[in-house]
Design brief:
The structure is a single chain. By secondary structure, the chain is an alpha/beta fold. It has a 7-stranded parallel beta sheet, with helices on both faces. The protein is globular.
């Protein structure tokens, strides 16, 4: 008798990186539940990529996570959970409205924490992997993205801590990509400092390559992975001397604006 297919949940899966992850998982033989705050888009994406279900899911609601875990378990043992849902308002802390700050913290950080809890409960006594989609901005100072970067830094920290406190067989990972060609990137202020710094690293990553790296973390012992690796090394070095690093912001921003101009951004 064949064993049931393993199931996985992908939050924020209707588009962008989440859709890419769902597509990659289906291609590797997983039963995938796609969730998104836009339920109709989640259902449409699930049908298009071959996922087993598409659910409306506000990640700020812990019970919505529990429901997603139960649906996934109907299609096979829950063995992977991808906390991908997030928002990316750019701007300085002084510029952001109060509701923007709250939304960044509640969706990006609390949504990830509730997702990890639901995943752990869904794994039960079995094995499983949680992959939290963070950002390179969570590894060092990123002026123009201060609140967004703070939530991503918290995701990296929580991933390391929860991985260390998890039972044997359960692994937690944080994926930290540089700028990715998504609607979130397209929606930022092209004149803002954050946009210039994102483009200062050269090539913008594709959804497909980030999705493949996210799925590759399942079953691995890697806790934090940066994309590309060289940018991760720079960000870690910068974080050791954030005061000195601020002096280089103007140079990186100018480099980014030149790159945006060349690409027609």
């Amino acid at each position: 008798m064949m064993s049931p297919m393993k199931s996985a949940v992908v939050t924020g899966g209707a588009r962008g990186i989440g859709r890419g992850i769902a597509t990659e998982l289906v291609g590797r033989g997983w039963s995938v539940v796609v969730t998104d705050v836009d339920g109709a888009a989640a259902e449409a994406t699930a049908a298009e990529v071959g996922a087993v279900a598409g659910l409306a899911h506000d990640v700020r609601d812990p019970q919505a996570h529990a429901h997603a875990a139960r649906v996934a378990a109907e299609h096979g043992p829950l063995r992977a959970w991808f906390n991908n849902a997030g928002v990316g308002d750019d701007g300085t802390l002084a510029d952001l409205a109060e509701d923007q700050v709250r939304r960044l913290v509640e969706v990006n950080l609390l949504g990830m924490l509730w997702g990890m809890r639901a995943a752990m409960e869904g794994f039960g006594a079995g094995v499983g992997d949680v992959v939290n989609v963070a950002s390179l901005s969570g590894l060092g100072p990123v002026p123009g993205y201060s609140t967004y970067a703070a939530t991503k830094a918290a995701i990296v920290s929580a991933s390391m801590s929860v991985n260390a406190e998890s039972p044997r067989g359960v692994r937690v990972h944080a994926l930290c990509p540089d700028g990715v060609q998504t609607a979130l990137l397209d929606g930022q202020d092209p004149r803002g400092l954050g946009a210039a710094l994102v483009h200062s690293g050269g090539r913008i990553l594709s959804v497909e390559e980030v999705a493949a790296q996210a799925v590759d973390l399942v079953g691995s012992r890697r806790v934090v992975r940066t994309l590309p690796a060289w940018r991760g090394a720079i960000m870690r070095a910068v974080s050791l001397a954030p005061g000195a690093a601020s002096a280089g912001t103007a140079l990186f921003a100018a480099q980014g604006r030149r790159a945006m101009k060349r690409s027609g951004g």
